[in-house]
Design goal:
The chain contains one helix and 14 strands, in the order βαβββββββββββββ. It is globular. The protein has one domain: Sandwich (Immunoglobulin-like), CATH 2.60.40. Strands 1, 6, 8, 10, 11, 13 and 14 form a seven-stranded mixed β-sheet that branches. The chain has about 160 residues and is mainly beta. The relative contact order is 0.23.
Length: about 160
């Protein structure tokens, strides 16, 4: 895991952008709505970020609950795997299969299926610490440069955000 530091202004702009584009999803029938933080579409043996920060990835806020929609529009099964999920308990809304890899975990999504992956976003250990993570398909995205790889920036807003 690599650590990246950034300015408070950049963090605030990214956080506002992430919250402004959120959609909601029912957690269970008849229950409250929760915001979808990102959507990853699996198509043509590639990941397409249809909701998030960029075509390559998305931003999550440390210490919050995240809901990521995974939609497989391809004709083969794909996986969403990350080291971030290795020791993080998560829930699924929809039909998916738990996947464990070396120091990583995730979900296999069959063709035509959509699942929502819900978990508590981990926090770093120091103030103003941002965590850079990656996700990949364990079948079609193991190699650097493959189309089935993406990036996650976890922004931690603990501590002071402005000088006084």
């Amino acid at each position: 895991m690599r650590y990246i530091t950034g300015s408070a202004v950049a963090v605030a702009v990214l956080a506002f952008t992430a919250l402004a584009g959120a959609q909601t999803v029912p957690v269970e029938k008849g229950s409250e709505q929760r915001a979808i933080k990102a959507e990853v579409v699996m198509k043509d043996k590639g990941f397409q970020i249809t909701q998030g920060e960029s075509a390559k990835g998305f931003l999550l806020m440390a210490g919050t609950n995240a809901d990521i929609r995974l939609r497989n529009e391809d004709s083969v099964a794909h996986e969403f795997v990350s080291t971030m999920l290795y020791n993080v308990p998560f829930q699924l809304l929809g039909t998916g299969t738990f996947v464990r890899a070396t120091n990583a975990a995730g979900i296999r999504v069959d063709p035509g299926q959509t699942v929502v992956l819900s978990f508590h976003v981990p926090q770093g250990t120091n103030d103003f610490e941002n965590i850079y993570e990656v996700f990949w398909c364990n079948v079609h995205g193991k190699q650097h440069g493959d189309k089935m790889r993406g990036e996650i920036l976890i922004v931690d807003q603990r501590g002071e955000t402005a000088g006084g």
